[in-house]
Design brief:
single chain; 437 residues; alpha/beta; Rossmann fold; pyruvate-formate lyase- activating enzyme; 6-stranded parallel beta sheet; 4-stranded parallel beta sheet; 12 strands; globular; binds cobalamin; binds iron/sulfur cluster
C-alpha cells in the first residue's frame, strides 16, 4: 500500500512491485497507490504492508490505524519506519528495518503461523545480482502515471552528503546490477504483455540516486543500452558533464534529461558538498575561497556540455544552509536562472530523521517541528543560522515565482528546437505544482 490524493502521478515507486515479487507464490497480492486511487478499508485482506517517506508518515499512520481498528494486521517499512521504528511500531504490528529482500519471507511465515515478531531488521545489504526478483509492475495501473517505466540499476551512493537519507540508509555502499540484467529487464518492460502503447512507453526513468557514480560501470551500461532505442532520464552529479566520453555514450543510448544536484552556488557550501567541487573547477579547501560568480560560471559550463549532447538538465538547488544569508539566497535564485538549466526544483534544507544533519541540528536545539508532513522540503522545519524561518520560506516561494513566470518558461522552452515538448512538460507541470505550494 503506497501513500494521498487521487488523479494521475508522475511515476510509480518500485517499492511495492518489488515487495510483491518477493512474496511467496500462492499468496494474492494487490497494490494500492494512494496517490492515485482510493483505499477500500473493507477489502478482505490478511495483511497490509505500508511504505512511506517521512513526509508521508502521518498519512500512513492514519491508514495503518484504520486497518488495525478493523483487526487487519499492518506491517510498515521504508525510510521513515527504518529510522524511527519505535514510532512506526505504535501504528503497526511489525516494523521492517532496512531492505525487505532479506526478511520479507520470514515475516510472511511469522504472520501465517500466528507468531509474528514486532521487529524484522535486515542484518546486511542484499546482493542485487542474486537476491532481487523482477518487480511485479503489472500489479500497478499504468494509466495512472505519466511515465510508467521506472527501473533501478544501482542502490546507494558513496558521496556522504550530510542531509541525505540514502547515505543514512545504505551507508557508503554502492551496489550495481549487471548491465545484462538491467537491459534484459528493460526489454521485458518493452515487450508484450508488459508494454504499453502510449507515446511515453519507450521512456525509462532510472530511479537510482546517482547512476553515474561508478563511471566504468555506467560506460558498460550505456553501451549495452544503445541497441534498445529508448529515451531515458536519470539523476547524476555534475561529474557526468566532465567526462565527455561517458556523456556521449549517455546521449547515444537515449538519455534525454538528467536531474542534477547543483544544490548551492555559495562557495562555503560548495566546499562542504564535495560532489560539486569538480564542476566548480576547484579542489578541496580552495572552494570556499571562490566567489559565487566563479561557481556560477563553472555550473554554466557544465550545463553547456550537457546541452551540446542534446541532454536537458533539471537543476536542483537547496536553500537554507548555515552559510546562506538573505543576500546569498537572492543571488542563488538569480544564478539558477543564469546557468541555463532547462527546469529547476528548489528545496528547503530539511533535517530528515536518520541523517547527520538531523543529529547536528537536534543537538543544537534548532529543530522547530516534528510534524513530519512538513518534511517535504517545501517547509522550514528548523531555525536557520543567518536568516529568519519566515525569510527562508519567502525566499523559497520567491524562487519558484521568479523561475516559473510565463516569460521565463517560454524563453527556456524555445531555447532550441530540440526537445521542446520535454521542456514544456516539465516546466508547465512544475509551475502548476509550485502554484499549489
Ligand atoms: C520515485 C521517488 C519519488 C517519486 C514518488 C512517486 C510515487 N508515485 O510515489 C517522486 C518523484 C514524486 C518523489 C517525491 C519526493 N521524494 Co522521493 N524518491 C523516489 C526514489 C527515487 C525511488 C523510490 C523507489 O522506488 N525505490 C526503490 C525501492 C525498491 O526501494 P525502497 O523504496 O527503498 O524500498 C526498499 C526498502 O526501503 C524496504 N521497504 C520500503 N518500504 C517498505 C515497506 C514494507 C512493508 C517493507 C517490508 C519494506 C519496505 O524494502 C524495499 C526493498 O528493499 C527514492 C530514492 C530511493 N532510492 O529509493 C526517493 C526518496 C524516497 N524520496 C525522498 C524525498 C525526500 C522526496 C521528496 C520530499 C523530495 C522533493 N523535494 O520533492 C518528494 C515528496 C513527495 C511527496 N509525497 O510529497 C527521499 C525520502 C527520505 C525520507 N526520509 O523519507 C528519498 C529516499 C530520496 C533521497 N535521496 O533521500 N520521490
Ligand atoms: S550525491 Fe545525492 S544521493 Fe549521493 S549522498 Fe549526496 S545527496 Fe545523497
Amino acid at each position: 500500500m503506497g501513500q494521498t490524493s487521487h488523479g494521475k502521478a508522475g511515476m510509480p515507486r518500485l517499492t511495492l512491485p518489488a515487495l510483491a515479487a518477493l512474496t511467496p507464490a500462492g499468496i494474492d497480492v494487490q497494490i494500492v497507490d494512494c496517490r492515485v486511487q482510493p483505499i477500500d478499508y473493507d477489502a478482505p485482506v490478511d495483511l497490509v504492508g505500508i511504505t512511506a517517506m517521512t513526509c508521508e508518515a502521518p498519512a500512513a499512520y492514519q491508514i495503518a490505524d484504520t486497518f488495525r481498528a478493523r483487526n487487519v494486521p499492518v506491517v510498515m517499512g521504508g525510510y521513515h519506519a527504518s529510522f524511527l521504528p519505535e514510532e512506526a511500531g505504535l501504528h503497526a504490528d511489525a516494523v521492517v528495518i532496512g531492505e525487505a529482500e532479506l526478511v520479507w519471507r520470514d515475516l510472511i511465515e511469522g504472520f501465517r503461523s500466528g507468531r509474528p515478531r514486532s521487529l524484522y531488521a535486515a542484518d546486511r545489504l542484499c546482493d542485487l545480482n542474486s537476491e532481487l526478483p523482477v518487480p511485479r509492475r503489472a500489479l500497478l495501473d499504468r494509466t495512472k502515471y505519466f511515465t510508467f517505466n521506472t527501473i533501478q540499476a544501482t542502490r546507494g551512493c558513496s558521496k556522504g552528503c550530510s542531509y541525505c537519507s540514502i547515505d543514512a540508509f545504505f551507508g557508503p555502499s554502492f551496489r550495481k546490477r549487471s548491465p545484462e540484467a538491467v537491459v534484459s529487464e528493460i526489454r521485458g518492460m518493452l515487450s508484450p504483455p508488459n508494454a504499453g502503447r502510449g507515446r511515453m512507453d519507450r521512456h525509462i526513468v532510472f530511479i537510482d540516486d546517482n547512476l553515474t557514480l561508478d563511471r566504468s560501470y555506467a560506460r558498460q551500461l550505456f553501451k549495452a543500452m544503445i541497441p534498445l532505442s529508448i529515451k531515458w532520464v536519470c539523476q547524476a552529479t555534475t561529474e557526468l558533464a566532465e567526462d565527455a566520453e561517458l556523456l556521449g555514450l549517455a546521449a547515444r543510448s537515449g538519455c534525454m534529461l538528467v536531474s542534477v544536484g547543483f544544490e548551492s552556488f555559495n562557495p562555503p557550501n560548495v566546499a562542504r558538498l564535495r560532489k560539486n567541487w569538480a564542476a566548480a573547477g576547484v579542489t578541496g579547501g580552495q572552494a570556499a575561497a571562490q566567489p559565487l560568480e566563479a561557481v556560477c560560471e563553472a555550473f554554466r559550463h557544465a550545463v553547456g556540455r550537457f546541452h551540446k549532447q542534446g541532454v536537458c538538465v533539471l537543476g536542483n538547488f537547496m536553500l537554507g544552509f548555515d552559510d546562506d544569508d538573505p543576500d546569498v539566497i537572492a543571488k542563488t535564485i538569480r544564478a539558477s536562472l543564469a546557468i541555463n538549466v532547462d527546469a529547476a526544483y528548489f528545496h528547503i534544507v530539511t533535517p530528515m530523521p536518520g541523517t547527520k544533519l538531523h543529529d547536528d541540528l537536534a543537538r543544537e536545539n534548532r529543530i522547530t517541528t516534528r510534524d513530519w508532513a512538513q518534511y517535504d522540503s517545501g517547509h522550514v522545519v528548523f531555525t536557520p543560522k543567518l536568516l529568519s524561518p519566515a525569510a527562508l520560506q519567502d525566499a523559497f516561494r520567491q524562487a519558484y515565482r521568479e523561475y516559473y513566470s510565463i516569460g521565463r518558461i517560454a524563453s527556456r522552452v524555445f531555447r532550441s528546437p530540440r526537445q521542446v515538448i520535454t521542456r514544456l512538460a516539465i516546466n508547465w507541470s512544475t509551475r502548476r505544482k509550485a502554484k499549489r505550494l
